[in-house]
Design brief:
Layout (H helix, E strand, L loop, with lengths): L7 E10 L3 H9 L4 H5 L4 E11 L4 E5 L6 H8 L7 E6 L2 E2 L5 H11 E4 L11 H11 L4 H14 L15 H15 L3 E5 L7 H18 L2 E6 L2 H7 L2 E6 L2 E6 L1 H6 L4 H7 L10 H4 L6 E3 L4 H11 L3 E5 L5 E6 H10 L15 E2 L9 H6 L4 E4 L5 E5 L1 H9 L7 H14 L7
Helix pairs in contact: 5-6, 5-7, 6-7, 13-14, 16-17
The structure holds adenosine-5'-diphosphate and magnesium ion.
């Protein structure tokens, strides 16, 4: 099988504004800091940015105003030429392409959604959605069909002949989104696309984007200065500071294991319970017994592991149920051979690995044994004891000595990918 080609690849990208930009890049490459390089009368906007975005990924670039996000995204679609480094779309090197080929590549492969919608005020919603295709000189019938389809995807059917001024902010941005969808490119770049919207509308747009992405499989690079938006949308997040990418990871990785104090401070107020998922906090299940083993074996396992319950799995490691110490001990006295007859269905609460922690709190409080985390095939992939859940939520939540707590919180994730011993 062919190896997966990244949809977008940035390789050591630099963008320095100013006459002596090349000298500045050389100094930055030698390790000089941004401030001393600034003495050349230049502005280093993006410094040494490298990353790969997988096809179908939502990759968020997150940073405060002025950190270089827009400059970075404008290099990704060729609107800005890097001072140094290169951009690849699929396998094609964008950087250095003659302008005509660059334009063709952009039209075919990359579309952009802007913060302030960039709609043409005197054109209808339908004409706005079709605008990119008009520039590409596609036949009118095809343009209109594709624009109509795109408007339907964003829920604007019935609004085709309205003018942008007759629309709310959220609806205008849906037109912007429809225009990008009508273009039919695999890659969509979105620069603060929802930042001008009211919070509630913004949430709706975020949900719609996630849903559209799941349906259409687009590769999306989404820029925001809002951490909550980044965490809601991003499969991975690149954290930018002063032109540099300081960390790339999933929201869980960034929460659990911030690369430096800057990132740690940034994420300290995030509601962890809505970001962390079962897979990030679960532990390897230590007390697991096969469904065919007897009560004696189960009891021995529980004693060795110092736990009061054991998870019972079949030969495919699918979860069958839970047995508790008292019932098993009683069974050994009475000579019962079957474990399955000892299981109480009330004891088993199985959750999927991507359930957010907020939704685990009630089940965990009501379940006498650890929660079982099972995959789509119902195989046991981990367990979540109540204390683990509470510890994960407490981790690094604004304490002054964040070091020890964040280490504690990170611990479960270090074993989370391990398999259940059979
Ligand atoms: P962000 O999108 O994260 O707010 P920008 O990429 O817009 O950040 O800006 C990064 C830095 O580059 C800022 O210091 C900004 O002033 C500077 N900058 C951006 N565009 C230009 C330009 N065309 N000329 C000079 N400096 C610029
Ligand atoms: Mg910007």
């Amino acid at each position: 099988m062919r190896e997966l080609v990244p949809a977008v690849r940035a390789e050591k990208l630099y963008k320095v504004f100013g006459r002596r930009a090349d000298d500045a890049v050389r100094l930055l490459e030698q390790g000089k800091d941004k401030e001393s390089v600034g003495k050349l009368g230049v502005t280093p906007a993006v410094i040494d940015a490298s990353f790969e975005v997988e096809p179908g990924e939502i990759f968020v670039v997150m940073g405060l105003s002025g950190s270089g996000k827009s400059t970075l995204i404008r290099m990704l679609n060729g609107l800005l030429e890097p001072t140094s480094g290169a951009v690849y779309i699929d396998e094609t090197k964008l950087t250095g392409l003659p302008s005509k080929e660059l334009r063709a590549l952009r039209q075919e492969k990359v579309s952009m959604v802007f913060q302030h919608f960039a709609l043409l005020p005197h054109r209808t919603v339908l004409e706005n959605a079709a605008y990119g295709l008009e520039i590409r000189q596609l036949p009118k019938a095809e343009r209109l069909e594709r624009a109509n389809n795109a408007l339907e995807m964003v829920g604007l059917t019935g609004w085709e002949s309205h003018l942008p001024t007759q629309l709310s902010g959220g609806m205008r941005q849906r037109v912007g989104l429809a225009r990008a969808l009508a273009a039919g490119t695999d890659v969509m770049l979105m620069d603060e696309a929802f930042s001008a919207l009211d919070p509630l509308i913004r949430r709706e747009m975020q949900d719609q984007l996630v849903e559209l992405q799941a349906r259409l499989g687009k590769t999306i690079i989404f820029i925001t200065h809002d951490l909550n938006e980044a965490m809601r949308l991003g499969d991975r997040i690149a954290m930018m500071r002063d032109g540099r990418i300081v960390q790339i990871g999933t929201s869980e990785e960034i929460l659990q294991d911030p690369a430096n104090d800057y990132v740690a401070q940034f994420v300290q107020d995030v509601d962890r319970s809505r970001v962390l998922t079962a897979s990030a906090v679960m532990e390897r299940s230590v007390a697991v017994v096969g469904a065919r083993s007897g009560p004696r074996q189960a009891l021995r396992t529980m004693r060795e592991q110092q736990v009061a319950a054991a998870f019972v799995v079949d030969s495919d490691r699918k979860l069958v149920g839970v047995v508790r110490d008292a019932a098993v001990a009683e069974a050994t006295r009475q000579g019962t051979e079957s474990l399955t007859s000892l299981m109480d269905p009330e004891d088993v609460v199985a959750v999927s690995p991507d359930t957010v922690v907020a939704e685990l709190l009630t089940p965990s409080a009501e379940c006498p044994v650890p929660l079982a985390v099972v995959d789509e095939e119902k195989r046991l992939v981990g367990v979540i004891p109540r204390v683990t859940l509470l510890l994960a939520l407490g981790g690094g939540a604004g304490e002054s000595d964040g070091s020890s707590t964040s280490e504690d919180a990170a611990e479960p994730s270090s074993v989370s990918t391990e398999e259940v011993p059979s």
